[in-house]
Amino acid sequence: MENIKKHKLCIIVITLLCSIAIIMFLIWLYHYLRIKNARIEVVLKNNLTAEFTEERKVSDFIESINGNIIDDYVINTTSLGKKEIKFQFKNDQNIIVPYEYEIEVIDTVQPVVWLSNVYQVTKGSNINLTDKILCGDNQDNKPKCTVEGNYDLNTVGDYPLLFKAEDKSGNITEKQFILRVIEPSNTNAPRTTVEPTYTDFNQAKNQYKTDKTQIGIDVSGWQGEIDFEKIKNAGVEFIMIRVGGTRGTNGEYFVDKYFKRNIEEANKYGIKAGIYFYSYANSKASAMKDAKWVIKQIKDYDIDLPIAFDWEEWAYFNDYNLSFFGLTSMAESFLETIEDAGYEGMLYSSKSYLENIWLPTKYDIWLAHYTIQTNYQGKYKLWQLCENGKIDGIDGAVDINVMYE
């Protein structure tokens, strides 16, 4: 009797499971046929190419569609070649259907050759022009650079030459220039002394201070021992302090000799403080290492303003084998690590490099442009307007900055 009950129970369970399976299959079949027979009317645009690192969304390549895209995501364009773009949209029958199309990521941007009309060297110099003259590309880590024409570094004169740069996508930049070989300077000749000119801090404050700006300075060991009471009374509203750097690429870290005093005095006198780090990073890993070192140095202090990444190895850029994308990604690795630790990140650079080398970034910009009124068209949080500022409390010159809300 007991066995009969168990047998009946097994039959019931099996029947129930089979019924569930059949129901699930019918549901799946219904949705399959519904999607298969759904009306799909998608017209793609004629141009299905995107530039390297260009911000393009799924919808940017669609001329018309009979519905609404569910996730109109930004396409990853950081590698060249063909890409399958897959997405879903809810059509005019209220059915969610999948769709895909193909685009090609291309690079049509010419390399950058950082060269004026005249390039001057001293007679007897032992330099390689293609190593020394900055030659870089947005995508190619090492564009092919050549110099066409004849010249003699051991003979004084002007040599008309052509500098040619070609990236792996076939984009070419050609720059004609004069190589000027000159005699070495006479070190025994008498030198004329030129009195330095200064930009008065009070004058800058009167000119640039508004209800939407603050006026401050940036300092390092070069400014020596600063009288913070005096600069506070002079109207300094914020200060960017160098924390330190490395002794060359992959060199040992050092703390700026006045960092500890500068940050402690800024905190003591209630002057809002930010930090900058002079980096020689050559990879994302080394930039992240830099950021972690900075975080350790500043963790015990009040940091109200961003931590700036300052990379200025332009004279040796060719040695780094970095594309402009690689350089920008490296900086962003530093800044992302900084922000993960709870601080704000910022990129420092001069106007020319921001316009020609750095790629657009989501991080705030600290613009260096020594002029009365900058014509930089990009967005920026800080503007370093001069390097010859004069203020009571600092012996010698100091950089003056404007911070915008």
From TrEMBL:
It comes from the Bacteria. CDD domains: GH25_LytC-like. It holds the Pfam family Glyco_hydro_25. SUPFAM superfamilies: (Trans)glycosidases. The keyword Transmembrane helix applies. Keywords: Glycosidase, Hydrolase, Membrane, Transmembrane, Transmembrane helix. GO terms for biological process: carbohydrate catabolic process; cell wall macromolecule catabolic process; peptidoglycan catabolic process. The chain crosses the membrane at residues 9-30. PROSITE patterns: GLYCOSYL_HYDROL_F25_2. Belongs to the glycosyl hydrolase 25 family. This is Glycoside hydrolase family 25 protein. It comes from Candidatus Fimihabitans intestinipullorum.
